[in-house]
Hints:
Blueprint lengths: L2 H21 L5 H11 L3 H23 L10 E2 L8 E2 L2 H16 L1 H41 L1
Antiparallel strand pairs: 1-2
Helix pairs in contact: 1-4, 3-4, 3-5, 4-5
GO cellular component, one term: endoplasmic reticulum
GO biological process, one term: sphingoid catabolic process
Pfam family, one: Mpo1-like
Amino acid sequence: VTPGFLVAQIVSLTITVVMVEAATRFKTVTDALGFYGVYHREPMNQLIHFFGVPGIIWSMFLFMAHLPIPFLGSYGITVPLAAPAHSINWATLATVFYVLFYLKIDPFGGLLYTPVLYTMYVTSVNMVRNDQVAAKKAQTADEKKKGD
């Protein structure tokens, strides 16, 4: 275990704690919209939020998909529709949390947003898997060159 891996685990745990703490403040969609409405009165802010927040969430999923959760990462999961078999990682936890959170505060909105969250999760897992496959191929090619 490298220091960088430990730091990444700590960062992922911190993000998860902050995410859960922030979300538990809202009991209903009205609570959430009231809070965000204060900061998003301007149309440009709303536009930035509409595109920026999903981009931030996807980036967070991509970072977290690299990191299996300690003590749970050895369990493999398979999810339907285009995600390869993979270990339970911090992105898995974050995706499940976000889906449950949005379904709780606004069931209809949560149903509409769940496919978006799922797509972000699946693309993150696929990108990590593709990176791992490419890294193994490069390592094998390097070892083969050294052997020649």
